Amino acid sequence: MKDFNNQVAVITGGASGVGRSLAIALGRLGAKIAIGDVDRKALPKVQAELAAEGIVAIAEFCDVTVLDSLAALRDKAMAEFGGVHLVFANAGIGAGETGSLWDYPEKDWQWSINVNLWGAINSIRAFMPALIEQGKSAHFVITGSGNGGLVVMPDCPIYTATKAAVQSITENLHYQVTALGSPVKVSALFPGPHIVETGLFNSGRVRPEELKNPGAGEGNATGINSADDMKKMAAEFGMELKTTHPDEVAATAISGLQRDKFWLLETTPEMEAAIKLRVQRVLDRVDPEPPVIM
């Protein structure tokens, strides 16, 4: 997709982080934006930001764990703009798990799987039939993670598991759409190459009441609620932690989409080495070891 002017982009999790950056970047290129987000407080703010830029946009409440909620967002975008050309299944959360995997609360598993995995599945079910039926060039983008999608990090197994599953689904979606000969393209977006400065670390602000752990506040069990917290922790061990701004991720996505790429991905030499080492260990039947990536 070379030109985004007058194209309609639907972005879940679009009120903050990578979703917000995608909305602004695409809007500046002339796209019309439909944002869906579960964070009711953030929706008016992002809509005002887009309006201030002269970007044509709507911002609607959307819970990706509920298929009907995504269908309502689809119908609203279709009614408002007459079609949809770009879908970003971007909504995601981090439960902030820590300690032994077998001790994680069931509600952490449920919440993460509901949003990260079912959110992607529901987005496909709500939007893909409409995109294919249009019979026009379109793009469906699923936000995954290098953690799970490319390598397996040891510090957040629930998140890693959901993103590994999401990547499998994304690749299968690509296979199926390609086999149909459809003009719809599928892409996998990997935010990075470093830890991205988003609200993922304080996802508790949008955690449903029924899935909250008793006695837990909005913060997570790790005590890390932002990329800055991670930087401070790394500094205590004499290490410098590099981070990536969401605007950089949006730029990576747009550049890849303009070239119809499946892999919307920026890496570091360390990540490249970790990916290659993991694959080689599989081929050599060598026990896995956690990658060292900063």
Short description:
This protein has helices at residues 17-28, 42-52, 67-81, 106-134, 146-149, 157-180, 227-236, 246-258, 269-284; strands spanning 8-12, 32-37, 57-61, 86-89, 138-143, 184-190, 195-196, 243-244, 263-265. It has 294 residues and is α/β, with parallel strands linked by helices. It has a 7-stranded parallel sheet, with helices on both faces. Strands 7-8 form a two-stranded parallel sheet.
Task: Give the helix/strand layout.
Elements lengths: L7 E5 L4 H12 L3 E6 L4 H11 L4 E5 L5 H15 L4 E4 L16 H29 L3 E6 L2 H4 L7 H24 L3 E7 L4 E2 L30 H10 L6 E2 L1 H13 L4 E3 L3 H16 L10
Helix pairs in contact: 1-8, 3-4, 4-6
Describe, in plain words, how this protein is organized in 3D.
The chain has 294 residues and is of the alpha/beta class. Helix content is 46%, strand content 14%. The chain has 9 helices and 9 strands. The protein has a 7-stranded parallel sheet with strand order 3-2-1-4-5-6-9, with helices on both faces. A two-stranded parallel sheet has the order 7-8. The chain is globular. The model has no long low-confidence stretch (mean pLDDT 92).
* Percent of residues in helices: 40-55%
Order of helices and strands: EHEHEHEHEHHEEHEHEH
Estimate the mean pLDDT confidence: 92
Taken from the alpha-carbon principal axes, the silhouette is: globular
Uncertain segments are none
Strand order of the largest sheet: 3-2-1-4-5-6-9
- Number of distinct beta strands: 9
What oligomeric state is this? Answer: single chain
Query: CA-to-CA gap between the ends?
Result: 33 Å
Largest sheet: number of strands, sense, barrel closure: 7 strands, parallel
Question: What's the tally of helices?
Answer: 9
Give the structural class: alpha/beta
Output the radius of gyration.
19 Å
Residue share in β-strands: 5-15%
